[in-house]
Amino acid sequence: MEIFYFLGFAVGFLVGLTGMGGGAVLTPALIFLGVQPRIAVGTDLLYSAVTRFLASLMHYRKGNVNVKVSSTLLAGSIPGLLISAYFMTFLRNSWGVEVLNRFLTQILAFVLIISSLATIYKMYFLKSADKTPDNLSLILTGFVVGALVQLTSVGSGVLVTLFLLLFTGMVSRVIVGTELLFGFVLTFFASIIHAGMGNVDYGLALMLTVSSIPGVVAGVFTSSKIDDRMLRVALSALILVMGVVLLLG
């Protein structure tokens, strides 16, 4: 049981510090610890909703959130959530829970690998844009991310952050705060859908959430004091390894 408290604190710290590391670390970690993939995804989404609410509130108070961009992304993500939820229900009812778990594991592995490589590319080869994306681009990005988050609990952090770096001139702290607000609303709705499908372990979610709160607070305050580049590289490498292990496992 103690390992879950430690895991919650560590992931909360990473989310508060870098805006990433939530689903990309927690979901595969839970699977490695023996939790069913569908339960790992649903439980992580509930946990992420709580931690991202706290982190986004703290960033909002610091003036680090662009509410308009977050809202436009959400306009596309909700339909993406619903379509993925329908597909998961169809897959479970047609072929059973084991097939659904295998499918979610494989999708999660691919998303982890792509996300880790995208993060490294973003850090070393990408410069922030000086323009504002049109609403259609934001909505389409939200749709894709919403669909992936519903299936894997991964995607909102890395993919949205990458998009905002590519197509906006927002500074990094505002990108993190904007993504956290978007991620909070997205994971909240996704967790409700998973709860309705019986994919949430509430006891496990409570352990992770309680231990994550001090981690998030510590991460947010630490974020303004250190250069987190090397931490992001190490985290991306860890995510890449997790993705490969899940893919080959």
UniProtKB/TrEMBL annotation:
Residue spans crossing the bilayer: 6-33, 73-91, 103-124, 136-167, 174-196, 202-223, 230-248
Organism superkingdom: Archaea
Record Pfam families: TauE
GO CC list: plasma membrane
Chief site of localization: membrane
Keyword Repeat included in the entry's annotation: no
Signal peptide: none
Cellular localization per UniProt: Cell membrane; Membrane
Keyword list, A-Z: Cell membrane, Membrane, Transmembrane, Transmembrane helix
Membrane topology: Multi-pass membrane protein
Entry similarity comment: Belongs to the 4-toluene sulfonate uptake permease (TSUP) (TC 2.A.102) family.
Protein name: Probable membrane transporter protein
